[in-house]
Design brief:
The structure holds two protein chains of two kinds. By secondary structure, chain A is α/β, with parallel strands linked by helices. Chain A has helices at 3-18, 35-49, 60-70, 84-92, 102-107, 164-177, 179-192, 201-210, 220-229, 263-273, 276-285, 299-302, 316-319, 321-330, and strands at residues 27-31, 53-57, 78-81, 120-131, 156-157, 215-219, 236-238, 248-256, 289-290. In chain A, helix 2 links the parallel strand 1 and strand 2. In chain B, helix 2 (18-38) crosses helix 14 (364-373), helix 3 (48-87) packs antiparallel against helix 8 and helix 20 (506-514) packs antiparallel against helix 21. Classes of the chains: A alpha/beta, B mainly alpha.
Chain lengths: 334, 548
């Protein structure tokens, strides 16, 4: 390639790469919820209201650093994240502004939204026990704490503690049972492991299918996805009873940013997200549960049965996340 | 390029005008590294005791063994394979010569994911063994230190292979003949003469491998192998302390800096000026060695490239059949390619200028600027993105404040921290090292003797550059462009953070899918990345083969 050709290619590429259509944005969203899950929602909104949404996806903490660095010049109107811990952290960093809205307060239950009205849960996911019914009888299962018992030695599989879902789970356990008890339980979990921790839930379930272990803890929607791909999946979900502490749930949620340039539009979008039409799309695309109790979940999700969510506020997941992480480091749960 | 004569003592203490060029190129890196290193002085005293006691010892030990293992294995693989395909003759040599570079296009976490999927307990290989040999059958666990060392080495050895092969091609058979004339046999000749002569190039390649290993996040995450990079994210995402994360990153940067300085100091002890003599033909191997070589090359190529690529193709095909090849996909592909071409060109030009600056003005400050400029390669991508984003956002806010003051309500809204220019700047900080190495290696060939004879013949200034230097540097520049291009196609964290709205590349697409565990849907964009990345690599090697 002669230098002249190279230069032409370069110039052409530069020109084309620089040609972005002028941003005629009507709403700007920073989303930690991935593009393939959130775009259907944005498309639906644009269809219904004609308002176009410009969005950027990235990891939640990175988006937060972005908002901090941009300060009052940030173009973002809304921040959407997928874990209550992140929502709590964002609120603590002063990245949200409170929203007074009777619609939101009516549609989203109190334990799924911030006490100071800084953020609102949009969909709910459960992290619960999955087991192989051929190897484990349903009567043997009680709750997360029970997984520490010696009878499970060599039969348990867990995901890495570095994933925020497990951090929130342990945070909830700390809130329910206290730090000392929880640390003993987590140490016992590690002793009961059949193999090294997995880096994702689907792998974990495949290990159970292959017989490497007999039960584990996964997010409900990963189970749903696997079930969708393999309708006769020989695994089952177990929901701990309310009397045994209930099921650990978490939310994907959103809030209006502190320096939102289009505040009224942002609030309107949030309110729309809590309505049935949006709830159905938001939750069902990812096989989650809608936060709005008046909206029904996907039939496959419903087939797993009803359950009692843990009474602990989801915001506790954030308050106690750092403690949970330290606890897991001490307990050598990697 | 006439130089105004200055007194000897002044020439030694002050840097010349070329220093400004080096400094300008290094400035973004200095800023980014500065933001990260500056965190060193702002300790998060709440988090550090916990990190020191429960996290760092294990993490540092893991990182050390990983880097050591990968460095050794890539040296063995890269050098050995380079020797075979450059100097020896065996069936398939012509194809292996360029094919052994293909693993460059495969991201490490893809190979890791495929390897784990195939070889873990629940995977098909062990399943098959259990069926036929009973439940007692056992394979070494893939999710282990050895496993990740092998996987990373298989994706990174091409860096060493490329430079070693260039060195061996230049030396040719003559070096062996010289060694044999002094009484060494061919094996001794390789270890005592050929290898030491190629040392500076090999060291440069290994340096790139080490930096990539230190910065790697995707592969170690798939293996759940906790390195310093994981600890950085652990502090940031888990313990909510971005300060502690930046501090850990500053240690990483300082460590790499020390290693780089030591390596260059060791290297500059000797002057290497290999002649560009023709290779003098290749060694014909005996029958057994011939097929052994074929088997070795074939094995490495299968494991490092054919296997993961076939798996990707199978998954991608399933996706295409269910309608994944839509207009949006082509949009992502186009965005990736145009962005990577632009950035690779910018980076190559910058690498050339930097190398010239360091060559024409060998003042310690120029060299320092050059070293810092290439540090970005060892920093974890997201940390580097923060290091670029924060100063740019700061500058943006200051300028915005001025505009607001001047124009009140009619002030235009600036967004300097995102956009094409910012992305190019960030890419420059990150990938300058990968372009710098090949150009620097090539420049070593332009000996002072050549410069002097050019001057004697009356050619000077731009003419000497165009007619003499440039043709000699062409291979180095093309290599730099190709390597940068391949790396850019795979780049994700910087693109995620600094892109304008609606810009999505293939690598970002892969991230979106894999972070939700949707590996099969990630296969199609991953395949595209590999295919596009292959082209410059293949063109490059076939060209350098013809030259030699």
């Amino acid at each position: 390639m002669t230098s002249k050709n190279a230069f032409l290619v370069l110039a052409g590429a530069l020109l084309i790469a620089a040609c972005t259509p002028p941003a005629d944005s009507s709403l700007v969203v920073y989303s930690a919820r991935n593009e393939q899950l959130i775009k259907p929602v944005f498309d639906l909104y644009e269809e219904e209201t004609g308002i176009q949404i410009d969005f950027v996806t990235d990891k939640a903490e990175v988006l937060m650093q972005r908002l901090v660095a941009e300060g009052k010049n940030s173009p973002a109107d809304l921040l959407i994240t997928v874990d209550a811990g992140n929502l709590w952290h964002a609120a603590r960093e002063g990245l949200f502004q409170p929203v007074e809205s009777s619609v939101l307060e009516a549609n989203i239950p109190a334990h799924l939204r911030d006490r100071d009205r800084q953020w609102f849960g949009i969909s709910v996911r459960a992290r619960t026990i999955v087991y192989d019914p051929a190897a484990v009888s349903r009567d043997e299962l009680v709750n997360y704490f029970d997984l520490a018992k010696p009878k499970w030695n060599g039969r348990l599989c867990l995901r890495t503690s570095k994933k925020v879902y497990n951090q929130s789970l342990v945070a909830m356990l700390i809130a329910q049972y206290g730090e000392r008890e929880t640390e003993a339980v987590v140490r016992a979990w590690v002793d009961n492991l059949a193999t090294d921790v997995f880096s994702d839930d689907t792998r974990l379930m495949k290990a159970i299918l292959a017989g490497q272990c007999q039960l584990g803890v996964v997010n409900s929607y990963y189970f749903g996805r696997l079930q969708k791909a393999q309708p006769d999946l020989p695994l089952a979900l177990f929901w701990p009873d309310a009397s045994d502490g209930g099921v650990h749930v978490n939310v994907a949620g959103a809030g209006v940013t502190r320096f939102a340039p289009r505040r009224a539009k942002a609030v309107a979008f949030l309110e729309w997200l809590s309505q049935p039409a949006a709830q159905a799309v938001f939750a069902n695309v990812g096989m989650e549960f809608p936060a709005n109790p008046a909206v029904e979940a996907d039939p496959l999700v419903l087939s797993w049965g009803a359950f009692e969510a843990s009474p602990i506020d989801v915001v506790t997941a954030g308050e106690l996340q750092a403690d949970a992480v330290r606890l897991m480091d001490r307990a050598r749960y990697y | 390029m006439s130089v105004i004569p200055r007194p000897h003592w002044l020439r030694r203490t002050l840097p010349g005008p070329w220093f400004l060029v080096a400094f300008a190129i290094a400035l973004p890196a200095i800023l980014a590294v500065g933001v990260v290193a500056g965190a060193f002085f702002n300790p998060d005293t709440e988090v550090w005791p916990h990190l020191l006691e429960f996290v760092l010892p294990r993490v540092l030990s893991n990182t050390f063994w990983l880097v050591l293992g990968v460095a050794i294995l890539t040296t063995i693989l890269g050098t050995g394979l380079a020797w075979l395909t450059a100097i020896c003759e065996f069936p398939g040599r012509g194809v292996f010569a360029w094919a052994l570079l293909l693993p460059l296009a495969i991201p490490g976490y893809v190979l890791g994911f495929v390897a784990i999927g195939l070889l873990e307990y629940a995977g098909p290989v062990q399943g098959f063994l259990r069926e036929w040999l009973g439940p007692g059958s056992w394979l070494p666990p893939i999710r282990s230190r050895a496993g990740i060392i092998v996987v990373l080495s298989l994706t990174l050895y091409p860096y060493v292979y490329l430079v070693a092969r260039g060195a061996f091609l230049t030396q040719g058979k003559r070096v062996l003949e010289v060694a044999q004339s002094v009484g060494f046999n061919s094996v001794q000749g390789f270890f005592k003469v050929a290898l030491p002569m190629a040392r500076p190039w090999i060291a440069g390649g290994v340096m790139l491998v080490v930096m990539e290993t230190l910065a790697d996040f995707g592969t170690v995450a798939v293996f759940n192998y906790d390195t310093l990079t994981i600890a950085i994210y652990h502090a940031w995402f888990g313990l909510f302390s971005v300060r502690a994360a930046l501090q850990l990153a500053s240690f990483l940067v300082m460590g790499v800096f020390i290693v780089v300085v030591v390596e260059r100091w060791l290297r500059t002890r000797a002057r290497y000026h290999p002649g560009k003599s023709p290779p003098g033909g290749r060694i014909r191997l005996g029958v057994r060695n011939r097929w052994l070589s074929f088997a070795c090359c074939g094995l490495v190529l299968s494991l490092a490239f054919l296997l993961p690529f076939t798996q990707l193709l199978i998954w991608a095909w399933r996706d295409v059949v269910t309608g994944g090849l839509d207009l949006r996909f082509w949009g992502f592909a186009w965005r990736s390619v145009s962005l990577s071409l632009t950035a690779a060109g910018t980076i190559t030009v910058a690498a050339l200028l930097l190398n010239y600056a360091m060559r024409l003005d060998p003042h310690p400050l120029s060299h320092l600027a050059g070293r810092i400029a290439t540090l970005g390669y060892a920093m974890p991508g997201t940390v580097l993105a923060i290091g670029i984003f924060v100063p740019l956002a700061f500058v943006n806010n200051q300028l915005q404040a001025i505009l607001d003051f001047l124009f009140a309500a009619n002030a235009p809204q600036l967004t300097l921290q995102t956009g094409l220019a910012t992305m190019l700047l960030a890419y420059l900080v990150r990938f300058l090292a990968v372009a710098h190495q090949p150009v620097a290696a090539n420049m070593l060939r332009i000996t002072p003797a050549i410069d002097e004879s050019v001057r004697v013949l009356g050619v000077s200034g731009w003419a000497s550059l165009r007619r003499v230097h440039f043709p000699m540097l062409k291979t180095g520049l093309l290599t730099a462009f190709a390597l940068a291009f391949v790396d850019l196609m795979k780049e994700m964290p910087i693109t995620l953070m600094t892109r304008p709205f609606g810009w999505e590349t293939l690598a970002v697409r892969v991230f979106e899918m894999t972070s939700e565990g949707q590996w099969q849907q990630a296969a199609l964009p991953a395949c595209a990345i590999v295919l596009v990345g292959l082209l410059p690599v293949v063109i490059l090697t076939r060209r350098s083969d013809h030259e030699a």
